[in-house]
Amino acid sequence: MSKPVIAIDMGGTRIKTGIIQDGTILYSASIDAHSGKGLRHRLPFIQETVKNMLHQLGLSTADIAGLGIASPGIVDSVQKKILSIDKKFGDAPDINLNEWCSKTFDLPFTLENDARSALLGEWKYGNAKNYENIVLMTLGTGIGSAAIMEGQLLKGKHFTAGILGGHSVINYTGDSCNCGNKGCVETEASTWNLPAMARTQKNFTESKLSASPVIDYELVFRLADEGDTTALHLRDQSLQAWSAGAINLIHSYDPEVLVLTGGIMASSSQIIPYIKQYIDTHAWTPWGKVHIEEGAFPGTAALLGIAHLVNH
Description:
Elements: E1 5-10, E2 14-21, E3 24-32, H1 43-57, E4 67-71, E5 74-76, E6 81-84, H2 97-105, E7 109-113, H3 114-125, E8 134-139, E9 143-149, E10 152-153, H4 185-188, H5 194-199, H6 217-225, H7 229-253, E11 257-261, H8 268-282, E12 291-294, H9 301-311
Parallel strand pairs: 1-4, 4-7, 8-11, 11-12
Antiparallel strand pairs: 1-2, 2-3, 5-6, 8-9, 9-10
Keywords: Kinase, Transferase
Organism: Chryseobacterium rhizoplanae
GO molecular function: kinase activity
């Protein structure tokens, strides 16, 4: 057996932490991310959470193989630096996380993009286990992606290969995205832009959405089921956007399987059949049909993946 690992997944809404050994989560906890205020002020809280987890398991850092962070954004996994990140955790590129890990825990440090980490988690332990050519798409606060081709995790010369699927353009006359481009999949359909998308709908004020303090996809799918026309329109627009994004990924990376994961997949019973039919109808795959799989670990794949990287 390999030694346990400390794994951290920096989500835009929650920061998840876990102690993981050989693909098993021994203990996990999460804290609010407050990602709009940056990462630096959350580091003491992450430290406290990790100390509590170790205490609960009766472990010390001497029992741990290393610490890994799965981060959004463009990540240099060699120099162990966050190079560029969207609005979430905006100060992260200025933080020396390797030094923080060394000073705080005296442990080896591993850093990787969160979607790549999630793909590794699904490939090693989940629903992508039997494939060597895989694309993962995460539907959540933003839209993430990652790719494995011929059994190799794609990184590219500047660490952006495979991970910018949420920033493929599906509407070149669309709104500006945080990334500087226009009409990205993420701008057309993701949690961060959903409230703005909802308010531009012409019947918004008559919709139950307008009375809600928080507009998220759980609400949109529920109200769409109840026949709310604004919610129905938003749902269908989003399903089309995700499907278009999925086809861009399939045409780019030629996978055997597309794994769909992330918080929005709570509505997978509607999302998967729609995307599957759209891909079957519109993707240029003369060899046959791309398999569509729901992620086995929608909440923890990135923790499992980054833990695997720490040990390998």
